[in-house]
Amino acid sequence: MAPAAAGYFRRLKHRLTEDLDQVDAEEMASSADASGACRASDCVRGDEVTMLGRLRSVEACSQSAGATMQAEFFDGTDTVTLVWIGRRRIPGIEPGKKLKVRGRVGDRGGEKVIYNPNYELQGDE
Hints:
Strand content: 35-45%
Order of helices and strands: HHEEEEEE
Shape: elongated
InterPro entries: NA-bd_OB-fold (IPR012340), NucleicA-bd_Rv2694c_prd (IPR016499)
Organism: Antrihabitans stalagmiti
Distance between the termini: 30 Å
Largest sheet: 5 strands, mixed, barrel
Number of helices: 2
Structural class: alpha+beta
Protein name: OB-fold nucleic acid binding domain-containing protein
Helix content: 10-25%
CATH superfamily: Nucleic acid-binding proteins
Number of domains: 1
């Protein structure tokens, strides 16, 4: 068997037998590397970043001071909470969607957060 064909079957076997979350994490991390995006695991408070990842969850939070919408963003290495202040819904921002986000990393209770990030919806895969 040719080396290229052997590599293909090895990757196919890996995709079919590995944990789906692990495969998704590996794909997200490799696509972030290919695009030149920052890894969430490498960014710290105060960094201006561009990251490529997928939304794991999205929720609207009604607070007495005003509405916010937040999403858990995962890039294959770590999670970052994205928070849009003053929004209850944003078309296209749904669990499972792939996004490229830009913003400054902050800290909220020891967790990484980006407030009002710029974002671009990426093609579904």
